[in-house]
Amino acid sequence: MAKAPQPTTETPATPIEPTATKKTRAQNCKKVYLDREGNESAHASPDAIELQFRFSNGHTKKTRLSDFPDNINVANTWHGWAQKGGDSYASAEDVDDAEEKFDSVYELLQKGEWIKVGERVGPPATLLADAYCRYLTAAGKTTPETKEGREKVSTWVKGLDKAERKALSESPEVAPHSAAIKRERAEANEKKIAEASKGKQSTIAQSAPSFA
Predict the structure, then answer these.
(1) Which secondary structure element, helix H or strand E, spans residue 49, and what is its range?
(2) The 40-41 sheet, strands edge to edge
(3) Nearest to 158 by CA among 127, 136, 182
């Protein structure tokens, strides 16, 4: 009597490894900045002298600016500034707010004041100067209507440090005028968009829902 055929088991030429969960960039490596005293920080600062890449396998790569030639440090600087500049308007509500936030950070960095991650720096000098001039007018005080007068106010505001600029922007005399200027700019921008949209053909898909 012939034997019934037996099931066969094929062994793959290459054993199938279980799929590993892909780690995120933060899980693979932690970046740590060190200053001269050995203090550690997760963020860059003017006091940092070393950046360490601490990989999750226990290996640490220590890097310093002196490791690279000047042309590479220039490229790294541009890369870092692009990130810093972009971060400045990450929480912006609209394009005008984005530009104002960028200007604020840019002005303070030019003065040599470092802006920490998440630090609020208040409106840019141009907005604060305009708001302060409006406050002077509303209060019946001397108004710097001349070009020289407005430049004097602008220069004074630009010379304020972060704390002073923040205090001015939040003062009960200036804050309402800053808010009014922002509203006026937003309204002007809305009108500009509305004007640009006139006569343009609709690009809404025919399949979009419509309610009577």
Answers:
(1) strand 48-55
(2) 40-41, 29-35, 48-55, 60-63
(3) 127
Distance CA 165, CA 119 (A): 13
**Which value, to the nearest 10 degrees, does the dihedral of the CA atoms of residues 45, 47, 50, 55 take?**
-40
How would you write the pLDDT of the chain (212 residues) with one tens digit per residue? Answer: 555 444 333 444 554 454 556 678 778 999 999 999 999 999 999 999 999 999 999 999 999 999 999 999 999 999 999 999 999 888 887 787 788 789 888 988 988 889 888 777 777 888 888 899 888 888 877 666 667 777 888 888 888 888 888 899 899 999 999 889 888 888 887 888 888 888 777 777 666 676 75
Note whether 150 and 144 are within 8 A (CB): yes
Are the C-beta atoms of residues 60 and 69 closer than 8 Å to each other? no
Residue 96 — φ and ψ, nearest 5°? Answer: -65, -40
Helices 125-138 and 147-158 pack at an angle, to 10 degrees, of 120
Contact 122, 103 (CB under 8 A): no
DSSP string, 54-117: EETTS-EEEE-GGGS-HHHHHHHHHHHHHHHHHHHTTT-SSHHHHHHHHHHHHHHHHTT----T
Dihedral sign from CA coordinates of 150, 154, 155, 160: positive
pTM of the full structure:
0.59
**Hey, which residues does 51 pair with through a beta bridge?**
33, 63
